[in-house]
């Protein structure tokens, strides 16, 4: 089994577990990001209060709306990312070794090369998995939009039945896919792909910070413990959290724009809530909401993404370590059996 495949499968496994743990926070954060009320309230409900409101008005299930495609998307996304990351990383290391033989550099992959490797892996991941995340965003924000678009009782004939907002009609993955296709055709599944491609800088910055901190920690550990460069699961957890924190703070406004574009567009009524593209969304948000609009729900996102990234890194590294141990043990056992 190749090292790239091991990393890809381990990344998928770690991503699924992290997603299951943090999904309610992600659902609430997506609602916060896509909130388009231009009138600011004096006091916004906190994350816990909003979660309680969702549970009270819509039930526990709404916090997990879109979980199935999200888990599938996470498995695909993390698997694709780590697989191609390892391939590009191996190539960068080979180039660094060649340069060292030619008297250039010390044979290690530098910060800039790490950034390029992460960006290439991220772009490949975005282009392949963007349709999944558009569907997930639709499912996470469906209830809020459907509430706003419901007609008032006075505008409905007495014989017509008004749906109780607490008992919405089923809205599954198939409904979201069909709705999206009816609105924009096949290209609708790549809505928000431009800011998402720019958002590649998030995992790129994250991995650059992570690899840099990990390298420094291993170097320091080797000096103190005479060549021992092993790191613990807790240290991996903390490094992953710090790396994700830095990346999220820098790139969060792009994430808000992406969510606005991927959510169901309001084509009637107030045109301030309808976005025709990335630039239109940015200009309308600046004009009607100010720069504050680009940071809606950032505190929730920091908690969710930092926790998810830390869990993912920790579990992924443990899975890679376990897989390599089993493969090495199996190879040793096979060689012993053959020699006997």
UniProtKB/TrEMBL annotation:
Family according to the record: Belongs to the mitochondrial carrier (TC 2.A.29) family.
GO-annotated cellular components: membrane
Protein name: Peroxisomal nicotinamide adenine dinucleotide carrier
InterPro entries membership: MCP_dom_sf (IPR023395), MCP_transmembrane (IPR018108), SLC25A32-like (IPR044712)
Transmembrane segments: 109-136, 189-210, 231-255
SUPFAM superfamilies assigned to the protein according to its UniProt record, in alphabetical order: Mitochondrial carrier
Residues in Solcar repeats: 2-91, 109-216, 231-322
Major site of localization recorded for this protein: membrane
Region feature (Disordered): 144-168
Organism: Salix viminalis
GO BP, one annotated term: transmembrane transport
UniProt keywords, alphabetically: Membrane, Repeat, Transmembrane, Transmembrane helix, Transport
């Amino acid at each position: 089994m190749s090292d790239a495949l091991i990393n890809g499968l381990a990344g998928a496994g770690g991503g699924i577990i992290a997603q299951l743990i943090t999904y309610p926070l992600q659902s609430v954060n997506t609602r916060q990001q896509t909130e388009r009320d231009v009138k600011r309230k004096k006091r916004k409900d906190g994350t816990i209060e909003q979660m309680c409101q969702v549970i009270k008005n819509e039930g526990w299930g709404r916090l997990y709306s879109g979980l199935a495609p999200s888990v599938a998307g996470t498995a695909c996304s993390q698997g694709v990312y780590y697989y191609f990351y390892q391939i590009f990383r191996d190539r960068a290391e080979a180039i660094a070794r060649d340069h060292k033989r030619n008297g250039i550099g010390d044979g290690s992959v530098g910060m800039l090369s790490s950034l390029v490797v992460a960006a290439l892996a991220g772009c490949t991941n975005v282009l392949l998995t963007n349709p999944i995340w558009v569907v997930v965003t639709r499912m996470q924000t469906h209830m809020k939009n459907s509430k706003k678009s419901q007609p008032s009782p006075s505008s409905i004939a007495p014989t017509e039945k008004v749906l109780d907002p607490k008992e919405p009609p089923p809205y599954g993955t198939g409904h979201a896919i069909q709705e999206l296709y009816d609105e924009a055709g096949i290209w609708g599944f790549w809505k928000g792909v431009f800011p998402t491609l720019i958002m590649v800088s998030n995992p790129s910055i994250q991995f650059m910070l992570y690899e840099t901190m990990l390298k420094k920690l291993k170097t320091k550990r080797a000096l103190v413990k005479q060549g021992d460069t092993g790191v613990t699961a807790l240290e991996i957890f903390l490094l992953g959290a710090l790396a994700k924190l830095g990346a999220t703070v820098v790139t969060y406004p792009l994430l808000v724009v992406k969510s606005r574009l991927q959510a169901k567009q309001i084509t009637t009524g107030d045109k301030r809530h309808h976005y025709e593209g990335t630039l239109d969304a940015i200009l309308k948000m600046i004009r009607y909401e100010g720069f504050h609009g680009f940071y809606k729900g950032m505190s929730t996102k920091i908690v969710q993404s930092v926790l998810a990234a830390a869990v993912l890194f920790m579990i992924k590294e443990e899975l890679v370590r376990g897989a390599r141990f089993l493969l090495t043990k199996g190879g040793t056992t096979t060689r012993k059996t053959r020699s006997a």
